[in-house]
Amino acid sequence: MFKKMINPILFQGDLKKKNYFEGWYYKQVSENQKNVISFIPGISLFHGDYHSFIQYIFVSVDKHDKRTTKTGYVRFKLEDFKFQQNPFRISIGENIFSESRVFINIKDKDCDIKADINLGTFTPLKKSIICPNIMGFFAFIPNMECYHGVISMNHKVSGKIKINNEEINFNRGKGYIEKDWGTSFPKEYLWIQCNNFEDKGTSIFLSVADIPFGKKSFRGYIVNLLVHGKQYRFATYNNSKLEIEEINDKKIKISLENKEGILKLEGRLTQPGGLLAPKKGEMNIPVKEELSGEVKLYFLNKRSKQTYEGKGSIAGIEVVGFNS
To answer: Do you know which SUPFAM superfamilies this protein is assigned to (predicted)?
Structure first.
């Protein structure tokens, strides 16, 4: 079990569970940032409808700066899902997802996608015995509603993707990978991810969510910031303080602070696309995900007094359940 905890990319569940989901999130951004596509392969083990799937969200900007967003959910039989743990590899039909490659050949109602993408060296999270993954000691608590893993904060990608009859070059592009597993997504959550800043080494992941715990619930949060070659963690489990200054379907402003530093973040949504999220294992909850949002960061390292300010683009942002 500990091997799985410290390697969240591995298949965490089994195919006999009930009311269970597991999904991987592979994001690829072209070098010119005009094209971004995320693939979400996974399984849904809901009574009467066990199946595997590949979701996608694709955003492109043409020469006239017109933005187009396409999303889809392609269903497969559960037996089409195959996995191996060492080296990690899952396949759904002829589609392959591993630590070094993404190969896609899917047909949706109005979108025919073929992709062959090579993945560069991952930038994994810092880990320890008491903090085996992004969830900290919460990773050891059984039967939580949703578990989360961040697999690579930043890596290079290369290859091509063909959408219908248009071929797109992803050489010298950037990638990011995370995943979720459990029974349901939180009823209220905020998610932000961006690794496209002026400083190419900067990357941020943020999640704020309502976490059921016994008969009650609490607001949990986890943030991992990679800047100046170092990772910083702001989380419920390390006594960080969170203040949500503003949140609606267009804009988010958040401040975080702990003994290491102060982080201020502002996110802007532009044109989100529709995806499906799990409830009791069933993929039936419509959500809106922004894939080309904007992020502003300010970070102060309290010890060194070093600061970082930057703007990020092609940010992934989801806001679900929060009142405007």
So the answer is: AttH-like
